[in-house]
Amino acid sequence: MVIGDNPLTRREVVQVARFDAPVALSDAALARIDAARDVIDALAADERPHYGISTGFGALANTAIAPGDRTRLQQSLIRSHAASSGEAVEREVVRGLMLLRLQTLATGRTGVRRATAERYAGMLNAGITPVVGEYGSLGCSGDLAPLSHVALAAMGEGVVELGGEVMDASTALERAGLAPVVLAEKEGLALVNGTDGMLAMLCLALADLDKLLDAADLAAAMSVEGLLGTDAPFAPELMALRPHPGQAASAANIAALLEGSPIVASHKGPEDTRVQDAYSLRCAPQVHGTARDTAAHAARVAEIELASAIDNPVVLPDGRVVSNGNFHGAPIAAVLDFLAIAIADVASMSERRSDRFLDPARSFGLPPFLADDPGVDSGLMIAQYTQAGIVSELKRLAAPASVDSIPSSAMQEDHVSMGWGAARKLRRAIDGLGRVLAIEIMTAARGIELRDDAPGPRTGRVVEHLRRSVPGIGPDRFLARDIEASVAFVVGGRALVAADLLGSADAWAPAAAAAR
């Protein structure tokens, strides 16, 4: 993948972060990098102070730094800012933020040297992934601590992962045939002043949600079928009365999945006295569609960010080096929080549909808890407890991080975005959503099998494929094993393949588990 000719796409970010696609800087990018470096070198020789070049940082911006101390200044910046704590962040997140920082370096607006940018490309291609703790970024002045750990590794310091083994960065660089960089003026600042971590997590989240929202439509269709619901509310003429694009897309999915269903056809006659289904069935397109439209808005924000050059100060095309506030993570933080709200709503509706299957007063003839021998067997009773526990947590995770701010750097940085925290909780929310949907599909599959009529061709294939790893109704067994197999079936993409909603499970891999 060539970096520097065009902005990266979200798909390209996922390819490098998750699938280790190789990268290379374009000739045009290298020329821009060289031109910007000439500007920095000229300012470094100037007697006047220039922020990040011949001064300290943050609240120490008014402290002049002598020429002989400037390399140490950059090294000290990285060492002191590599201050994360907690469990290690997932490999794909670190690779994503490395790639996005490299893309910003390629814009020629940061003033780094060619060798420094090439070192980042070399680390990505060699599979060297710095170990970054979960806590440390406030989402303003960039993802300072996470990016500092990456820069520290490029200097040959700190800890990295290579080939599944954790080792000193110096050892990993030596194995890869890469020399540590010695940072020059402005470079330390250029390597840490970006929103790359939260943007990487947004790109990965959108890739996962693209498929999980299809899985939500599949789960809803199977529940409508298994609970003897009607497909009438999903008609396109009804969607046209309220033309939200996400709602129309979800309704079309659900209607297509139910097409040709003997179960649905079995209760369409005048003998069925029900006027309308419960909200969790009838309003699925409205809730799922809201999440789709939220994801579409977040994708637009991500695309703008991917076309941006985030640093402070920046080297402008006319040669000026100007301080700015583009490192503030507010645009990304807000949509990360918005997605967590939408996810909680989709999962909450999914759990309500599952619960209907288990209650004989609302399941239209199904045994209590879908048990083989109710009383002796508990069936799927506690699977709903698991869903409820996850949904409750998702509601807590929906509380926005971006409305919080704790001043830092002696009040110089007196308003921060907390976007990194918003991204971290979104990853956990995505993990929870996949589990809730998997339990619904497992529950709906059992309900469908207990009906006298056959399911539709597409939902029927889902049930058939699920049964290859999750047995159907029978005496109670170790339920956690069934749940985890269902999660693998749904989150791994095989359910979507069976339903003709995805061409190949190999075309999509879920995020590494963020739940701890």
TrEMBL record:
Pfam families: Lyase_aromatic. It catalyses: L-histidine = trans-urocanate + NH4(+). Pathway: Amino-acid degradation; L-histidine degradation into L-glutamate; N-formimidoyl-L-glutamate from L-histidine: step 1/3. GO terms for biological process: L-histidine catabolic process to glutamate and formamide; L-histidine catabolic process to glutamate and formate. Belongs to the PAL/histidase family. This is Histidine ammonia-lyase. Its EC number is 4.3.1.3. It comes from the Bacteria. It is an enzyme of class 4 (lyase). One of its GO terms (molecular function) is histidine ammonia-lyase activity. It is found in: Cytoplasm.
